[in-house]
């Protein structure tokens, strides 16, 4: 059992321990300055749509998506949209884990530099920061000590997940592609896995943090060639994570170079909520000696553009 400063070993956290954990968290950066202000200039043909706000502080944590201006409004769920069926619908999500910086900043960079290039061929929805409180406090969890990326299921208690699912459902779009932008950091071993073990009174052995970029495909429908096309594009930006001495990455078997699989729907992951034919989750490694903020963000953008080119 790993030591953690909150709770009693062998006993799952109750509300008192969760409250103690929340009180230990502090604001370390500004969602307003680093995210919202970056959304001040939206590419032509798109608009900023508020789809919710976190109940912790609704004025501080509004939730936004970038959507095409020609998106139909208030469509009944049993009626088709008037969007051109020949244009695949694409969802890009970032910051489901708020502490994973390049997921957010990579999504913003895509909006500001590449989104317009693909507007004619795709209906693209971008949600750059799903978990703004997590972004500010550099946390994997939300204020309720819940992991939003394990909370995409009906009646989810995680407001980040519940509000995103409601928004996506309201769009009534048959998504072809969903890209969820993430990072794997050294703090997974130093903080988040020990916290998880303490919260649930379980044991989580530390894993070898992969030194490099990798993808997580969807086990029921991995789309191997699609994942490989993305890996080839990212190789131009940064290095791909090798397998460990057991031939695995974070305990999972490789589908191909730099690609592992999780059953996204069964694990209640963000990547499992749309049923899209093409789904991938990025994992950038910002703590590598070869990493910079610039190439981490660029790798995220490269994933999106490579995926769009593949399905075009």
TrEMBL record:
Residues 27-312 form the Peptidase M14 domain. CDD domains: M14_REP34-like. The keyword Transmembrane helix does not apply. Its cofactor is Zn(2+). Keywords: Hydrolase, Metal-binding, Zinc. Belongs to the peptidase M14 family. This is Zn-dependent enzyme from deacylase/carboxypeptidase superfamily protein.
